[in-house]
Every structure is written in C-alpha cells, then in structure tokens.
Amino acid sequence: MSDHLERLLRTTVADLAAESQPRDLMPQVRARARRIRLVHRTGYLAAALTVVLLLVVPYLAVSRNHGLTPPITNFPTPSLRPSPTATPSVPVAPAPTSLNAPVALLPGWVVTAATPGRSAADPASPPRSWVLDRRTRGYVPVPYPTAVLAPSGFLVAVTGPDGSGLGVLDLRTRKVSWPLDKTVGNPQWSPDGSRLLVTLDDKATGAHGFAVVDPVSGAVDPHMVDRDKYRCNDNCEFS
Amino acid sequence: MDARAEQEFTQFVADRTPALLRVAHALTGDQHAAEDLVQGALAKAMLRWPHIHDHPEAYVRRILYHDHISGWRQRRRRPETPMAELPELPGSDGTDEAHTRMLLRNALLELPPRQRAVIVLRYLDDHSEREVAEILGCREGTVASQASRALAKLRRLVPAQWTEAWR
Q1: Domain B95-167 belongs to what architecture?
Q2: Which among B13, B18, B119 is the nearest to A13, CB-wise?
Q3: In contact, B64 and B41? CB cutoff 8 Å
Q4: Distance between B74 CA and the closest CA of chain A, angstroms
C-alpha cells in the first residue's frame, strides 16, 4: 500500500511542478539583488556606527566625570623610554630631577614609576628610575634599573644592575634593605602591599622558580619548579 | 560583476529558470510564491556569483529549499489553514484517480514546509536520503524521520481505500 501511495505521490508532485509557467525573472532578480546589497551595506554601516558609539560614549562619560589632567610639557617619558627604533647615538635629553605632580595618562590612573628601556641605557652612566613619592606628590630619581612602587605607602621594590638582587627602598628614610642577593626578575606587589613576588633564575645551575618576600621583615619563601616537569624554553616569569 | 560574469549569469538564469520554477511550484503550489522563491535564490546567487559560478545550480537549489523552509516570507503571504477534517468532495465513488490525486495534492500542500521539501526532493528530483540531507543541511536520520512522518500524514489524509482502489 505504501508503494501505491509513493507512486501516486510521485505523479502528484510532478503534476504540481508542471503547473508552473516559465517566466523571465531576470529584471526582478536584478532588482532584488540590488535591494539585498543595500540592506547589507546599511547593516554594515549600522554595525560600524554602533562600534564607534560603544567606544566613544564610555570614554566621554568618564572624561566628563573626572576631567582630564592637562598634559605636562616636561614629562620625562621620551627621554626615559624611547621607542625601540631609537639608536644609542641619539642624544638623550637630560631628565628633570623632579616632577611637580603625578602624571595621569588615563583618568583615575597615575604613573607610579618609570624605568629606563634597555636600549636607552647609556652604558657609561648608571641606570636610573623615577618613582612617585606620595608625600610630595612628585617623582624622585632612584639609582636602580627596576623600581616598582607598592600599591600603597612608600616602599619601592628595586633590583640591582641586570637584576642582581632584590632590594626594598623606603622613600621616607631613603634606605634600602636587600632581602635577596640572587638574580631576580619581575618584582610584583600583592594588592595590599604586604608581600612581594619575584621570579628566581639561577643561570649557573639552571634552577628556576619564584620567591615570596616579606618587604618589612625581609623573610624569603622560595619555591623552585621542577624544570623537567614544567618546561620553560625562554625567559619565563611568574606573576 | 564584470561583463563576462554578467553574461554568464544571465545565461544561467535563462537556462535554468523553468526548472527552478518547477521545483518552486512543487514546493509552494502557487505561481507567485514560486516566482518569489526563485527570484530570491537567484538574487543571492547573483551577489555570490564569482564564488559559485562553477556549481551555481546546486547553490541555487540549496537556497531555494532553505528559503522555503525558513519560509517566513511565504507564510506571511499565504497563511496556511489547517483543516481538522477533509472537505467533502461529492460525486465521487472513491475510485476516481484524478480525484485521489487532487486530494493528495491538497494534502501535500498542507504539510509543514520541511516535510514538503523532503517529499519534493525525494519524489520530484529523485535524490537519495543522503543527498537530501546534504542539500537541507541536516542529518540523514532527520530526513528519514521527516519523510516517514510526511507519508504517515498523507496516508492519514488520503483514506486507505483510495490509494488501494488505484492499484
């Protein structure tokens, strides 16, 4: 019975198809393609506008709330961190010894420290960084290639030349203690400023890991990582 | 579209429109709806012609079936009227083949668009279940279940003695 139904169905579908009348559809097809293209273009335009609005509106809202800090003309960044294309032969302008106010690059964000780029470091002169002093609200120079200001207070994590040793500088007393005399990298503060994380990298033994340092007591809690288990081919840092 | 592509496309439309209209008419059961469906598919093909000119017919047919199934346009223009009972057709003793076919035709147009598409692909274009699945972009199992559901419904709509009588 299903066979008969299927045969009957085949005839019926063929009949239905045969009822169609041939027609030249080219003009309608052309018009329709134009319309689709127009709709697509309008869609793209609307999407682009939406993206622009999404980008601009929050920025305008924020800048209206906070007001942008006027640009500081003697900002030392160009001399401290030149672009990678700069060559050592380019004369480096002398940096000012102090800046009068914290530099705000974005509303609500303040530059806390500036360190010399590797290519900018003049081998003849000792490396120097700039750190924000929250008491004077100005920047002070410190004679270290790395300087990271704690999230609050007056402690600064510094490293010796080429990352030799980790020091903690107190901006109030200008004294430095050195809890670690190993090669360290990438010092980072805990959000409350009570601990310091540094990457340890012993070039002689190949030992690799990190240490948590108490900046006040100078206690060091090292954690070495099994290099066979966790491979790192190049410059790994912990964060 | 450059002049050569334009000419190619125009030629394709002239050659293939009648066949496409036949399929569309089997799908919609209406000349205007069929033309609408074919126009839409050809317009999309025109916009994508540089990418599809090697195999335009397969592309256009696929669009045709997809548009028919997504069918919002068609449903808006020709709202379906579900009938709980078949209309009485007087003057038939149940052995009239033309009468049975008419009944089947109406029943076919009552099917949901996807089931109708499966029926047309199977019985007009003679595609295998695998090919139908490929064109509709679904799994073979779906095609089989849609087909059997459609046949079951048609069998219900067309009383047994009529298909039997035509034997």
Answers
A1: Orthogonal Bundle (1.10)
A2: B119
A3: yes
A4: 16
CATH class in words for B1-78: mainly alpha
Percent of chain B whose predicted confidence (pLDDT) is above 70: 77
Which chain B residue is nearest to residue A22, measuring alpha carbons?
B18
Name chain A contacts of B47, Cβ cutoff 8 Å: 33, 36-37
Domain ranges of chain B: 1-78, 95-167
Closest by Cα among A1, A76, A32 to B42 = A32
pLDDT attached to residue B12: 92
Indicate whether A191 pLDDT > 90: no
Percent of chain A predicted with pLDDT > 90: 12
Q: In Å, how far is A51's CA from the nearest CA of chain B?
A: 26
Q: Quick check: A21 contacting B, CB < 8 Å?
A: yes
Mean pLDDT across B22-39: 91
Res. A107: pLDDT tops 80: no
ipTM: 0.77
